[in-house]
User: Fold this.
Amino acid sequence: MEISTNVVSGVLILAITGRMDSNDAQKLEVACHDFPDMPVALDMLHVEYINSSALRGLLEFNRGLRTHGTRLILVESTNGFTDRILRITGFNQVFQLVPSVPEAVHALSGEDGS
Assistant:
């Protein structure tokens, strides 16, 4: 898994590429380290695969953000493999899912994110 970071309208965008597995939750935490207390949009549009350990890691990552009063939104296509996994496992009930980064930025900051 590769992570790139960007800040738009006060929202940290973490764009993930590749496969997500058991070690990746810690990588997300490290990527957020320099941006404390900033809401996070996790761009999963280019995630090719996600396993159950990575799903558990997402829950832990979200729990950690919430203890600091920070929100997390997942950016996910509505017809991809990852979206299907998130819906089958009920994660669409735990996380707010949006189809684009600008929508996530708007939801987290109230700005349009373009």
